[in-house]
């Protein structure tokens, strides 16, 4: 019996969320008196996973799994879970994990809870807290099946070092043609930009920026902070920015450490999307903007004056603290 | 092509969220219920297939009679028939099992659900239906083209998008992008009148026990007041020394 965790990697390197997922799995393993087994697909150095609490890594090296394929990956994880007699399978909230999680759950006849924000409050019965109503509330949910699948919310648990001796084992899942009935034709990924999903800091703009031609100053601020850019719903509806940057209830949720909202009034749907962000800064010339009620820090002022000043100040700060 | 669109009956996006009975139940008092926005994008795309390529569009929902106005709205938008599975929607798995039964009985080529509902945000029903029915599955779908049995779909991934090729039967987890926001339809009077005479079948539920159960709900801790600052110097100082995020 163990806790199984899927560790995502890209181009042979583990992603930060992989370390967060292993840290979380170790937390559950300690509660249940067991150990953590990680599944790594064409991943990085397995010793890195040991640093966060994995004592065993199933290394999968398979050319057919070079590109993510939900059905095949779900079958692989279910087979690994059965082999390890795992009672809990930990996944993350990445787009790929959310794609395959329901398939893993059906494969394992396991109850699945996504967007989990904390370690279980108890393991018998097994109860977890997860965000619902697009971060406007939490539910404490009991999973009643023998095997449980957890989808860990991004940035909810953090990375915790836990030096563990790690054994590696190669693992070859048995996959059939049926696993490959959905195939990737092409991938269009912005490689030079920080994405909202991975970003620690997000700089977001609203209608207050008056037009797409004014996004340069926002992008410069984002570049200075190593941040991703985002926007409010009206901005994406008007086509100023792509849909993929739309943050909110029908757009993307943001769980960054710092969220800077510029010229966004703070509609309830937008606030729901950013509730999980830790620190929120609002820059708006309307002191009555509802976003100020949800923010930690605010500047009442003209974005066209404040943002360039902030960028310059941050550049100075970075130079001094480099 | 026979299409089933799965419709969740959810509180509208502006709803204030409260709980009753010792924080064990969602408080529906004063809450307006709507078609789940992600499902509405799917329904509109289904209407596009109906009008441009020829398709029959059914909608289905799991819930009590109180969800019927939401199904009637889908009929007013243009769906041909509606099916309500007469049982409470308890958890994602039990809902998926009921809808999978509808899919099997109806012989649908394409099933579209939202990538997630905006109430419980489970994001699991379309994927589970695909697994339970043996259909192919594409999640977070932002473009869908079908020619005969062949499907080309684009899905959103973290930091980009991916074009996929597959075949029918297919289950799609849809979202904004499947159609544009401006393409969403508001039912007109003619549609509303027609919807009254369209079939709304009530189907009895199959055995499907829940795998998860919400025990209690809680709301996020109240936030302290915003700290308004006069200068960017002060803001940078606070972000570094107090919030420790830069």
UniProtKB/TrEMBL annotation, chain A:
SMART domains: ETF (SM00893). Signal peptide: none annotated. Residues 3-184 form the Electron transfer flavoprotein alpha/beta-subunit N-terminal domain. Pfam families: ETF (PF01012), ETF_alpha (PF00766). One of its GO terms (molecular function) is electron transfer activity. Keywords: Electron transport, FAD, Flavoprotein, Transport. PANTHER family: ELECTRON TRANSFER FLAVOPROTEIN ALPHA, ELECTRON TRANSFER FLAVOPROTEIN SUBUNIT ALPHA, MITOCHONDRIAL. This is Electron transfer flavoprotein alpha subunit.
């Amino acid at each position: 019996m163990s806790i199984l965790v899927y560790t995502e990697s890209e181009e042979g390197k583990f992603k930060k969320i992989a370390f967060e997922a292993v840290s979380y799995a170790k937390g559950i393993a300690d509660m249940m008196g067991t150990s953590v087994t990680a599944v790594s697909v064409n991943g990085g150095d397995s010793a890195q996973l040991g640093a966060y609490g994995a004592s065993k890594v199933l290394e999968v090296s398979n050319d057919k799994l070079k590109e993510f394929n939900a059905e095949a990956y779900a079958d692989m994880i279910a087979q690994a879970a059965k082999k390890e007699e795992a009672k809990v399978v930990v996944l993350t909230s990445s787009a790929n994990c959310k794609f395959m999680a329901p398939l893993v759950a059906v494969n394992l006849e396991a109850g699945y809870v996504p967007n989990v924000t904390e370690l279980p409050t108890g393991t018998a019965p097994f109860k977890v807290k997860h965000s619902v109503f697009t971060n406007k509330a939490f539910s404490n949910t009991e999973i009643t099946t023998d095997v449980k699948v957890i989808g860990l919310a991004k940035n909810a648990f953090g990375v915790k070092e836990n030096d563990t001796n790690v054994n590696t084992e190669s693992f070859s899942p048995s996959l059939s043609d049926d696993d490959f009935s959905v195939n990737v034709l092409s991938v269009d990924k912005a490689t030079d930009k920080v994405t909202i999903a991975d970003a620690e800091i997000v700089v977001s703009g609203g209608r207050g920026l008056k037009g797409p031609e004014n996004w340069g100053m926002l992008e410069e601020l984002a570049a200075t902070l190593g941040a991703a850019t985002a926007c409010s719903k009206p901005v994406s509806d008007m086509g100023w920015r792509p849909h993929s940057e739309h943050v909110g209830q029908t757009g993307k949720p943001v769980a960054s450490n710092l969220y800077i909202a510029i010229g966004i009034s703070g509609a309830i749907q937008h606030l729901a999307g950013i509730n999980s962000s830790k620190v929120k800064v609002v820059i708006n010339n309307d002191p009555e903007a509802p976003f100020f009620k949800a923010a930690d820090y605010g500047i009442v002022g003209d974005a066209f004056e404040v943002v360039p000043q902030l960028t310059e100040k941050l550049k100075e700060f970075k130079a001094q603290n480099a | 092509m026979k299409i089933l669109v799965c419709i969740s009956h959810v509180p509208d996006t502006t709803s204030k969220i409260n709980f009753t009975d010792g924080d064990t139940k969602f408080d529906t008092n004063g809450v307006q219920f709507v078609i789940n926005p992600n499902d509405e994008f799917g329904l509109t795309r289904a209407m596009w297939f109906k009008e441009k390529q020829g398709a029959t569009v059914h909608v289905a929902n799991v819930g009590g009679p109180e969800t019927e106005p939401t199904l009637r709205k889908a009929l007013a938008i243009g769906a041909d028939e509606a099916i309500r599975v007469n049982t409470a929607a308890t958890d994602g798995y039990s809902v998926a099992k009921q809808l999978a039964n509808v899919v099997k009985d109806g012989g649908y080529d394409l099933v579209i659900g939202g990538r997630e509902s905006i109430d419980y945000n489970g994001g699991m029903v379309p994927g589970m239906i695909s697994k339970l029915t043996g259909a192919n599955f594409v999640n977070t779908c932002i473009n869908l083209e079908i020619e005969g049995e062949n499907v080309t779909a684009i899905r959103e991934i973290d930091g980009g998008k991916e074009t996929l090729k597959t075949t029918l039967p297919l289950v799609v987890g849809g979202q904004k992008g499947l159609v544009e926001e401006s393409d969403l339809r508001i039912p007109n009077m003619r549609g509303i009148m027609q919807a009254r005479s369209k079939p709304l079948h009530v189907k009895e539920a199959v055995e499907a026990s829940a795998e998860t159960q919400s025990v209690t709900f809680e709301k996020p801790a109240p936030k302290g007041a915003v700290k308004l600052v006069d200068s960017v110097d002060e803001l940078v100082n606070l972000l570094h020394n107090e919030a420790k995020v830069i």
